[in-house]
Amino acid sequence: MGKGNDILFKGAIPEVHYYDFGAKGRGEVLRVFLHEAEIEYKDSRIPIEEWPKYKEKFIASGFNPVGKIPVLQTPTGNYTQSIPTIRYLSKRLGKYFGRSLEEEYECDRIADVGMDHRRTWASKVVYGDEITAKDFKENVAPEFLRQFEIFYSIKHGDYLLGDEVGEPPGVVESLEQDVNINWC
Q1: φ and ψ at 116, to 5 degrees?
Q2: Nearest-5° angle of CA 20, CA 41, CA 120?
Q3: What's the confidence (pLDDT) of residue 60?
Q4: What is the rounded CA–CA span in Å between residue 155 and residue 94?
């Protein structure tokens, strides 16, 4: 049992409901966070072709009234939307999202860049709307990396908040993964 389970869920094991579409999507940020925070969880992948029937059930039952995933199902309730869920759990754990409003702001900026990246990557590469993975890696990803580098250079130390991990775990890793995966 992970340390985070004891702190957040009185030892219970939450369940993450997410698509299983053969690639790491936005839900991966939540999974990386749970791993970093030492929160054991059950990983429930929904086959993409079965998603429409699950979505209807999620909405009808109130499991997630807007019918989106990932959903972190816990004994204390269901949590949706990756970054707000990570922010909430971070605050409950007392780490990863800063100790002051200014530090929270710094973390939110990184989270925003990370989510902009994921949205762009998904629309352009996964769904093939505009460009190839190679073009994304060579022409789009460098701008997101540049933004991360600027925000990280503002603080002194190994992490966003100096010597303490301050960014939500998984946000930066998702960009690194997308840039380094050989999708082409």
Answers
A1: -60, -45
A2: 45
A3: 92
A4: 20
End-to-end CA distance of the chain: 39
Asked if pLDDT for residue 21 goes beyond 60, the answer is no
* Residue range 23-48, pLDDT digits in tens: 566 677 788 888 888 888 998 888 87
Q: Which of 87, 82, 70 is nearest to 21 (CA)?
A: 70
Per-residue pLDDT, 181? 47
> Which region, left, alpha or beta, applies to residue 11 given φ > 0 means left and ψ of -120 to 50 means alpha?
left
**Is this prediction's pTM over 0.90?**
no
Q: Which long-range contacts (CB under 8 A, 24 or more apart) does 92-96 make?
A: 92/7, 92/8, 93/4, 93/7, 93/8, 93/37, 95/37, 95/164, 95/165, 96/33, 96/36, 96/37, 96/165, 96/166, 96/167, 96/168, 96/169
Q: Tokens 């991966």 map to which residue? A: 28
CA distances from 61 to 42, 57, 58, 64, 76 (A): 21, 6, 5, 8, 17
Distance, in Å, from the CA atom of 21 to the CA atom of 29, rounded to the nearest integer, reads 16
Q: 124-151 burial, b if ≥16 CB within 10 A, otherwise e? A: bbeeeeebebeebbeebbeebeebbeeb
Beta-carbon-side half-sphere exposure of residue 46 (alpha carbons within 13 Å): 20
CA distance 118 to 151: 18
